[in-house]
Design goal:
Elements (H helix, E strand, L loop, with lengths): L1 H37 L2 E6 L3 H9 L3 H25 L4 E6 L3 H5 L24 E14 L11 E16 L13 E3 L5 H36 L2
Parallel strand pairs: 1-2, 1-3
Antiparallel strand pairs: 3-4, 4-5
């Protein structure tokens, strides 16, 4: 019996240690990211597909080029309208994705107004920002050696999880990781619903992440103390 208690004790001790590593690599990082975003801004990157459009024009397929241009404009306007109407977690700015490098290098005269027009009066005033866009996300895979409940380290893989999602990346264009609620899938072009869900999930995570870390640690320590 004493031997059984000893192994349970060791198991819980290791679990607490591993959980501490987990919180540093996953939950604590997500907590800091979401705090920074709350006090910072989200920059939505809008695609233009200029290379494809220009290729169609060069090959004499003007009608197809014009159609793609119009489709991009409609989609971008829907995304802007969705964020303006349903996202309230933090400040939002809009740029064309082709200007991402300029943004990262601190350039200011690249922001768009709500009608997709360049507006040089719009300035990014926040010290911290993350990037958002509509497109393809990759799935997360487990990379930790252990599979206890408290240990859940993931990394993006090369496998596609969804081709229709609004997701958040860092300034290196690397998608964020769980438990940060970094994406929301869209269905039938319903950007309003997706953006609304993304905003709600960010609010929920903002209030829950810190408390969940403390609560999990408290429960593990209680279990450990009962065995002493």
């Amino acid at each position: 019996m004493e031997k059984s208690f000893f192994f349970v004790f060791i198991f819980l001790f290791v679990k607490i240690c591993l959980f501490g590593q987990y919180t540093t690599s996953n939950r604590a990082i997500a907590t800091q990211q979401i705090r920074d975003l709350k006090n910072g801004a989200l920059v939505l990157r809008l695609k233009t597909n200029e290379r494809s459009i220009e290729a169609y024009r060069q090959s004499g397929r003007k009608e197809l080029a014009d159609k793609l241009t119009e489709e991009n404009k409609i989609q971008n306007q829907k995304l802007v309208d969705a964020f303006r109407g349903f996202f309230d977690f933090c400040k939002v700015y809009f740029i064309y994705s082709k200007n991402t490098a300029l943004l990262i290098n601190g350039k200011q005269n690249i922001f768009l107004n709500d009608a997709l027009g360049l507006d040089t009066t719009i300035k990014l005033l926040e010290n911290h920002y993350l990037l958002a866009e509509y497109g393809t996300i990759t799935s997360n895979v487990r990379t930790d050696e252990y599979h206890y409940r408290g240990v859940y380290h993931t990394e993006p893989s090369s496998s596609t999880a969804s081709t229709s999602a609004i997701f958040i990346s860092d300034t290196s264009l690397v998608q964020l990781k769980e438990p940060f609620p970094f994406y929301q899938s869209t269905y039938l072009g319903n950007y309003n619903k997706a953006v609304d869900n993304l905003s709600r999930n960010l609010h929920k995570a903002y209030f829950n992440l810190d408390n969940s870390i403390k609560e999990e640690r408290r429960k593990l320590k209680e279990q450990l103390n009962k065995l002493r």
